[in-house]
Specification:
Length: about 300
Amino acid sequence: RGLGDVYKRQFLILAFARPWGGLKDETTKKEGIEVVIAVDASNSMLAPVGADNDGSQRMRTAKLMLEKLINRLDNDRVGLVVYAGDAHRIIPITSDFVSAKTFLNAIDPQQISNQGTNIADAIEKSTASFSNKKGVGRAIVLITDAEELENVEGVKQAANNAAKNGIQLDVIGVGSTTPVTIPTVGNTPMVDSEGNIVHTALNEDLAASIAKAGKGIYVNASASDALNELEKQLGALQKAAMESNIYALHDELFGLFGWIALAFLVIDLFLLDRKIHWLEKISFFKSCLLYTSDAADD
């Protein structure tokens, strides 16, 4: 074996090992819309989604639906706002859906001390979360049980203001219209400051009126076609070209070593062809034949 054959094997092994290099910055262009998801994190979201007290938690139902919605956004950009007594922007508008879903699944009403249902603040914080890009469709997806609002008129005014700024407000209602209790640690019902058991129910009429003020639609999270209706509504918004920077952790280098191995292969073939061409000038069989004839004469 020649030295080239040794190198060829070594570089092939390196290529198959798929070595990584440094950071690689990729820029991709795509068309889409901007969507800010506002999630109700009040204590009532700990209640069961159904009319009985044994059903799935409202918050769990909300997270599952919103995660499916994020998966369908495709080339769009998403932001996340969480609200109870006041609203907080968790993630600004981004194309990083992995982070958005991670923060979404981390929402826990039990970790929020300032309780309430301040939807007006949620709409205002969501409105301020959009980028300044022109010509792009914008929508707020508000998920709530629409119960015990602190300022109903203020909520409708905030929804109107969003619509005037070209932002569509879609509302997802979660929970049952039948009052249910809110389980706490130990599965005991939540009580108020006076010791009375707290009951909670979805206010669909109010949720629908908020969506109407925001020029959007209202859907119930429990409806089988809720996600499709919401996706259809968002799909009607104007899409615009967006630029998204994606930072890859490593750059693949296996191609470099593969080309080097191929170069050594070509060199080996070229040298082998020259060796064979040189050997063709010598007739081994003719020499053997002459040797055999000489031996017979002796």
